[in-house]
Fold this sequence. Notes:
Strand content: 15-25%
Number of domains: 2
Structural class: alpha+beta
Amino acid sequence: MPELPEVETVVRQLLHCGRMLNNPITGVKIFRPQRWINYPADKIAIRLMGHVFKNITRRAKFIILSLDDEAELIIHLRMTGKLMCQATPIDDDPYIREIIYFQDGSQLLFKDTRTLGRLYFKEPGEKLPVLDRLGVEPLSFQFTREKLQALLYHCNLEMKSFLMDQSKIAGIGNIYASEILFLCQIHPQRNTRSITAEELNRLHEIIPEILNRSIKFKGTTIADFRNAENQSGEFQKYLQVYGNHGESCPICQTEIQRIVQKQRSTFFCPNCQK
DNA sequence: AATCGTTCCTGATAGC
DNA sequence: TGCTATCAGGAACGAT
């Protein structure tokens, strides 16, 4: 399930594949556009024709493809979305939702088994509410200790829910929320306002650290995630608690527990995490 | 204003 | 072994 490190991996690979930028768009096909697009599909197609992508960036878990006229095509992979740019166009995947055709014959494919992924088109200067609602980027210089402290103090949530809330810190999902709390030795049901100065320092250090480490390993693949080169990530080998309920804690051998918070699984060590 | 519960979707799998 | 009910979860949305 793509979270910040997985999305960052896709963005980097698309940037470096050499086919995405300054390559004129000669066609766009969008399948089953009813639910997952914020804009009429035929208008997007007409709007993109003849233009080129100038840059690819990431905001939280959103992939932003910037056009030469400053319009943007924005993609959220949600659970099973995959974005890849192929030089050889043969592909019979039945879950292709969108194809962008380039002049040199390569294709940008968006595949999504469960159709939870989303595509947005934004004209220059337009607002996109889903982006405006996002909180601080945990890998940016704006993610300061003071910012984190203020966020924690100004809400009243269980720590797991806090880390998952995209309007607070943007980009952390279910896997990294559990992992961060384990490494910080904080119980997932602790209230945000109960975090001590020492724990605050640890959170501020660990959050960027684990996200960067996962990026280094090209993200985590539990079942579905494939990067832009259609490969699995490697970071699942280094997960400490996620998905490991019933197994023993890597630190103290206590059995790892699974609980449900906001209808989402949380994994933690009841001995290490206080 | 902040937080909570429901909903979307379909392949994988737990459990009988 | 084979079937079916449940689970997986990001985030918009409406409710509280």
